[in-house]
Every structure is written in C-alpha cells, then in structure tokens.
Amino acid sequence: MAKLWKHMLLPLLLVLLMMPLSSCGKSVADRDILTTAKTTNTIVWGVKADTRLFGLMDIKTGKIEGFDVDMAKAITKQILGSKGKAQLVQVTSDTRVPMIKGGNVDAVIATMTITPERQKILDFSDVYFNAGQSILVKKGSPIKSVKDLKKGTKVIGVQGSNSVDNVKKAAPDTTVLQLSDYAQAFTALKSGQGDALTTDNGILYGMSEQDPNYIVTGGTFTKEPYGIAINKGQKPFVQAVNKAIKQLKQNGTYAKLIKKWFGDVPGFSLKEVE
Fold it and tell me: What is the pTM of this model?
C-alpha cells in the first residue's frame, strides 16, 4: 500500500506545481481587460512611433505624438474618467498582433486595417478612420498611379502591412521591397532604392508634409477602414471602446482631433475619413 501511495504522490505533486504556472500564464493574455483597467485606472495602448500624423516620436521631447495617440488618450478618459491614464507602448506593423496576443498591450491603435484574416484572430472596434491605399513618388516622377507600376519598376512597402499584398495584386509585375518600418521605407525612397512607396494615404500625406518634394498621386486603389485591435474574448472592453468612440464623435472631440492633425495637410480631404 505504501508503495502505491509513493507512485501516486509524485504525479500529484507535479500536477499541483504546474497549476499555478498555467493559471499565471493565462492571466497575462486572457485577463479581463476592462476590469483590470478600472482597477489600475490605466489602459495600455500599442501605438506606432514611426508614422507621422498618427504616431511619431518627437526626438526633442521623447514623446509619441499623433492622431492615434490622441485618440487613445481620449478613449481612455471616456472609459475611466478624467484621471484615467493611457500608457503607450511602441509597436510596428509587424509586431502589432504578437503584442496583443502576448498580453503586452490591452489594445492597438496603430493605422490597422480591419481585414477578414485579422478578424479570425483578433476583435476590432468600430471604424474610427477611413483610409485608402495610394502611392508616394518624387515630384516629376513618370509614375502617376498604381497602373504605372509595371515590370522594371520597384515599389517599397512595410512588413506586416496588408498594403504589400494589395500592391502585389494591383501591380503584379512590379518588384516589391519590404522594410521593417515607415521611417526606413521613406529613407529608402529618398535614396533611390525604389520608384514609389505604397501604404495608406493618411500615412503618405504625413511623409509628404515632412518633405514636399514627395507627393501622393493617383488617388486610392483600396479601402482601408482602421479599427482598434483587441484580443479575442474581451467583449466588455470592445463594447466600452465602441461606446467611447461614439461619444467622442458626438461631443465634437473627434472632429477637433481630425482638424488638428489633418486640417492643414495639402491635398487631404476631411471627407475622406468620414
């Protein structure tokens, strides 16, 4: 009988030792975000720091500034009250999904298009910005639209962005060069490594504002509705975010932020995001 207990005791101890580890791992990525946010008075947001107008690091202040950043802060206040805090964590197009799935951030607001593929693994808020894919070229370029991206041309895109797949479909004969972020992509365009750069028009307008020698041309050839990405299983938090977006549009805050970041951008129409 004693031998039998010895054989049973070891497996039981192993199970007991593993249980806390399992529950701890689950609490990071699968915790109730809304409850945690109300407890800590903080929402952790994934934002870009390389995308002018939406999320860009100010090297003088060390702060990330942009429309997405201001929206994250405004939504936080709507959900948690005036003392609510928005904690910002840098993400790129390539790291957005892993950061959400790993529980490193509560939500990502980073020029992220709602697509059927992404909706399989993430939930999204209602659309908060309507963008469309376009191309950026140097002034005087013979490339006037995506139709001019033919064999012998090279277009620059960013890893993790659906714009790469989009341009391959729209211009299958062009060569696509993928870089890790928009800062590198724009630098590559200016150094002559590509004939054009493609992504969403709002992002490209930010680059054009930074250097007027480069212009957005040809209109848009896709529709890119931006949503706030949240992990699956967080319905109360998704509902709270949607309610906050609706309130910001009703109380005029949304319109003020659109005007603040896009009102003076040459060639940009406020009607494009409605």
Answer: 0.81
